[in-house]
């Protein structure tokens, strides 16, 4: 019995191989993702971090099946991810609960698409909501919930169909700092309990360290993989690890990598006049004089 | 006693008992991700509540009475002294005459039949318009092919007012009755269609993406996501459509009708029963109001998430 429990999940293996994605027509095409190869092993928690506009969401959308690659392949367990499917659960940055459904009906939505009968759906949804501490709110409408609760329901809803992998696109980006910390812990708990792979997009360095087994750092557009940083901190991770030397070392390393790319992403004008501009003489009218 | 205990078992657990998320290892108890206070039960005695309601509603009630009273008073004096100052009150019935005739008509089976006929036409025309308007609106809003094929036709026909169709409708349909229902249908069809299309186009794309990730089929997407998401807009269309349906119906009845409240009003003019004209107008207004009210009630019933006591207040 315990053998089954301890055996790492063998599914949910994502392989991105020499992926290239362009947007727009041929002449004015913009390369969003350029030659990206990466992997999420079964049961692994992987973060992708990079400056805004670096194509990390595009990469996730290819894995989800919303965007077709121009070159290269993305597979999950050997099958191309060419259209969205319930075996790849997704959590969005924007609140994406169906406002006309109660919390429980939202969680049941995916099970309904699978053709489960009503009382089985209800049972499954209530069990999951109980795990996330949301059972008392099962009959509330999303508009009656706080932001953190909405995202928790969103995670529960994505997990309800028993996906092999959870794709998360900056899911906590819109939450306040304190709620974020709690949400990260809830997510870690859910992940350990369900033993599925997670591909997590973020631009928050602390978040990526706290959650991940490995972190991929992407370059400014067109997005490439700049570095792959393993996070060797033991689990369970606690907030006080943030002051450990290992944590600080990883954080410094990631920060250096990302700062470099953020500056690149802001383009030449910043490098030339923005950073060198400190010796510009500014008169009594202040910066307005320069513009 | 037994029923009481078994009932207690069904009652959901008290909300505050489950406030703590069992999986959260909250390092800081103040930082729980939820801050939604649950609605507090009203414990005030009912008499107090009526009193409070009266106190807040009384000034408004007084002003409403005053507003309508002034109108009736003006009507009364204008007809009493046969006011003739560009607008002429010489032939206009007085409020008293209207009241007397209303009392007489309240006994008349024929008058009720006219109301029934008009309501039946509205119900038929509006129902058919709702079915076609919503179904076609969903298709046109969601599928480019349907839009390319159908939208040009509708955009061409839309500027033609329903009333302009009257002569054509009389030729087109086998009976007068169906042609009037057709005019009513035309009047409400376009507002319902356009609002449905608009509703579909303004569905938040993230909801569609979320549904696709949850394994929905194309039909499931339309039925379970696009339709409910567009429902508030659809009901706006229904409310406007109902108004236009009445306009079209009354005009059609006046032109080509037998029976119906519009026909009654026009007939009263031909028969020099001037008081009945006012009664017809008032009844049309009341019936229109009742129909709009019915749509609003239906909307509230179908969209409970829009009417929640905390909706909008605690985002």
Describe the 3D structure.
The complex is a heterodimer of chains A (291) and B (315). Chain A has 291 residues and is an alpha/beta fold. Chain A has 2 domains: 2-87 and 163-289, P-loop containing nucleotide triphosphate hydrolases (Rossmann fold, 3-Layer(aba) Sandwich), CATH 3.40.50; 99-161, no CATH class. In chain A, 36% of the residues lie in helices and 21% in strands. In chain A, the strands form 2 sheets. Chain A has a 6-stranded mixed β-sheet, with helices on both faces. In chain A, strands 2-1-4-5 form a 4-stranded antiparallel β-sheet, covered by helices on one side. In chain A, helix 3 runs parallel beside helix 5 (147-160), helix 4 (118-131) crosses helix 5 and helix 5 (147-160) packs parallel to helix 6 (177-194). In chain A, 47% of the residues are buried. Chain B contains 11 helices and 2 strands, in the order ααββααααααααα. The longest helix of chain B is centred in the last third of the chain and has 39 residues, at 218-256. In chain B, strand 1 and strand 2 (87-88) form a beta hairpin. Chain B has 2 domains: 47-92, no CATH class; 98-306, MetI-like (MetI-like fold, Orthogonal Bundle), CATH 1.10.3720.10. With 315 residues, chain B is mostly helical. In chain B, 71% of the residues lie in helices and 1% in strands. In chain B, helix 4 packs across helix 5 and helix 4 packs across helix 10 (261-270). Chain B has helices spanning 2-10, 46-80, 95-105, 109-142, 144-157, 166-172, 176-201, 205-213, 218-256, 261-270, 274-302, and strands at 84-85, 87-88. Classes of the chains: A alpha/beta (291), B mainly alpha (315).
